[in-house]
Amino acid sequence: MSFDLAVHGTPRGPGQRETELYEHPLGAHGTVMRHWVEPAERLGLPLLARLSDGELTVGHHELAAFAEELNALARDWQTSVPDDGVIPVIAGRRHYETPLLDHLLTRMNILRMALRMAEVTDGHLYLSG
Q: Which of 51, 85, 89 is nearest to 70 (CA)?
């Protein structure tokens, strides 16, 4: 099972549904719990820590605070993720390992891009796993 992130835009008019603008996997459930949620709880990052419930909606008014939490988490990874940490990756039929810190930072950048999309569309983020 994996965690996914989505950007939802605001409805265009009364009675209309919000539009899903973007969707991408954030990471495997265990990886998100171990490297996103546990450090967030340790660092006192309340929005990211709510991922422990299996889902998180970050409203438009919370996006700036969420961006600050992402910055704090990325700083923590620089010292807490071991240099020799790797994560298995599957691309089609190919199985290999990639450096864990690189993997986490790549996913963080995807989440930051989604956050920016939510900012400019007056939307919100939804993460679920």
A: 51
Q: Which residues of 2-33 are buried (b: 16+ CB within 10 A; e: fewer)?
A: ebebbbbbeeeeeeeeeeeebeeebbeeebbb
For the chain, 129 residues long, the average pLDDT of each consecutive 10-residue run is 91 75 94 97 97 95 98 97 94 94 97 96 94
**pLDDT given for residue 13 in this prediction:** 67
Q: Give the number of C-alpha atoms closer than 13 A to the C-alpha of residue 87, restricted to the C-beta side.
A: 21
Look at the chain and count its residues.
Answer: 129
Which amino acid is present at 18? E
Q: Give the Cα separation of 73 and 34 in Å (integer).
A: 12
- What gap in Å lies between CA 88 and CA 103, rounded to an integer? 10
Rounded Cα distance, 48 and 36, in Å:
7
Supply the DSSP string of 47-83, one letter for each residue: HHHGGGGTEEEE-GGGHHHHHHHHHHHHHHHHHHS-T
